[in-house]
Inverse folding.
């Protein structure tokens, strides 16, 4: 296995459970979110102690999904965020590999990794919006295989000089090189969900696994299987959506993908996730109508500074 531990990976996974923040940084629930302050809020979140900033890849907006992500192309957007931050990890959550040529992904990811001084961690996925596949001329039945082949291509392009490679995406005869190379031997890859693959494949080919909100009992079963497959050597990331209430003692109530709750319960919950073995918690505060700076500061005081 090639060395994947760049500065971003170490920021996420060296030490106790870390916490990251999902773009857009806003409490607005509008399908197309307000975007005017994202660079300023990214710097503010870093100053509060968040360990990572996550950007999604939503190539085309479908109103039926009611969510345009952070709207901007993730490579362009994270390059801007890199210029307005210093040490926080920059993470894609997640690049939809079957919709992109892997040589373009390899070039863009290595470039962003270099320009951010090794802070990029690449979350990857197979896509969950069926309307996008015909828009890009991709046969949905080929998506799982395209994902695997993309991962193989990325690893080869980052780690080998003038590689020879035969894929459905194209052929390389050893006369072409990919520049730049990343800061480590490969950009670290975090597989999101199952991406059409077995958990065994993810354990063998990914550098970590990102999964969605689960009750603690179910999470412990999932983590046990993951730890067994990876010999406790690869990290696990939990996604959590939060509507942070003004009353810190407010009891939790379920929302899609997470909870509405006060910061007392949220701090307790993240502590329980750490005890269960979760390495990183990625939160999305895009719920409710409170001032986003206030929400972030309350979270930081209750969780990041405790």
């Amino acid at each position: 296995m090639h060395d994947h531990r760049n500065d971003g990976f170490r920021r996420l996974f060296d030490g106790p459970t870390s916490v990251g923040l999902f773009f857009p940084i806003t409490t607005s629930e509008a399908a197309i979110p307000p975007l005017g302050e994202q660079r300023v809020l990214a710097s503010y979140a870093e100053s509060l102690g968040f360990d990572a900033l996550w950007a999604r890849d939503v190539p085309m907006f479908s109103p039926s999904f009611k969510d345009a992500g952070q709207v901007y192309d993730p490579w362009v957007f994270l390059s801007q965020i890199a210029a307005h931050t210093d040490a926080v990890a920059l993470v894609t959550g997640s690049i939809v590999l079957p919709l992109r040529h892997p040589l373009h992904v390899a070039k863009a990811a290595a470039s962003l990794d270099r320009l951010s001084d090794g802070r990029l961690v690449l979350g990857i996925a197979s896509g969950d919006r069926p309307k996008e596949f015909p828009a890009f001329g991709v046969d949905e039945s080929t998506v799982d295989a395209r994902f695997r082949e993309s991962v193989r291509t990325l690893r080869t392009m980052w780690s080998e000089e003038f590689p020879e490679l035969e894929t459905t995406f194209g052929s390389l005869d050893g006369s072409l090189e990919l520049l730049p190379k990343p800061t480590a031997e490969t950009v670290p890859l975090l597989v999101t969900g199952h991406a059409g693959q077995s958990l065994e494949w993810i354990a063998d080919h990914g550098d970590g696994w990102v999964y969605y909100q689960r009750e603690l009992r179910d999470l412990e079963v999932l983590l046990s299987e993951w730890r067994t497959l990876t010999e406790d050597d690869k990290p696990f990331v939990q996604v959590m959506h939060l509507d942070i209430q003004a009353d810190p003692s407010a009891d939790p109530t379920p929302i899609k993908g997470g909870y509405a709750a006060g910061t007392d319960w949220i701090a307790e919950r993240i502590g329980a996730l750490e005890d269960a073995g979760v390495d990183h918690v990625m939160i999305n505060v895009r719920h409710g109508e409170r001032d986003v700076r206030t929400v972030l500061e309350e979270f930081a005081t209750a969780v990041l500074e405790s």
User: Anything to note?
Assistant: The longest strand covers residues 236-244.
